[in-house]
Amino acid sequence: MSFAPALHAEWIKIRTLRSLVGSLCAVLLATAAFSALASADADASDPLYSAFFGVSFGQIAAIAFGATAVSSEFQGGALWLTLAAVPDRRRWFAAKVTAIGMPVLAVGLVTGLVTLVLAKTALGTDGPTWTEGLRGAVGCGLYLTSMALLAAGLAALLRSGIATLSILIPFLLIVSFVVGDVSGGVADFLPDRAGQVVLHGTWDGTLGPWTGLAVTGLWTAAVLLAGGWSVHRRDA
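User: That's the sequence. What structure does it adopt?
Assistant: Structure tokens below.
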């Protein structure tokens, strides 16, 4: 089977699994809802971050989407059936990653624009400018996509959605902040902290908005390569 039919098959799996559709909806709802609450009590020193504060919660849904989409293949012998149709494991994994990344990117960009409009409505002239707001909206989509794909790669490596979520969610909610408080500039290169620089109007660290996203992209690429190696080398 060539890449296009493999991609189509993976897309059918994603859009017909209710938990995955629910995770995509949760990305939008969680980000917009918590951002709206933050905008009601905005920080005047960084209105852009107040506008996109909900991304910290929306990323949990994005991670759940990526982890579930991959880990479902390792349940009940599903991967054997998949590989019977697509024997080339690298082609299958590339199709799976593409089928995960495309909808998250689309939802992430819509989420960014919705969040920006809500913030501009709530904050008025006290909100971010349209220029930095649009940068934040695009960055929101790219960041959420990177986190979903990072989770997908880790799920392929660990072959478990539960293990993936048990590592990533505590890391994002607890470990990253603890490390940030004690490690100085090193924490700026963690995937979540680097990627979220694009959601700040002002920043003091080493990385800028786009270099921060690039660092997150490198983390994601490394984990995807590890996950792809695992899929290629290990028994189904």
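The first helix runs from residue 3 to 16.
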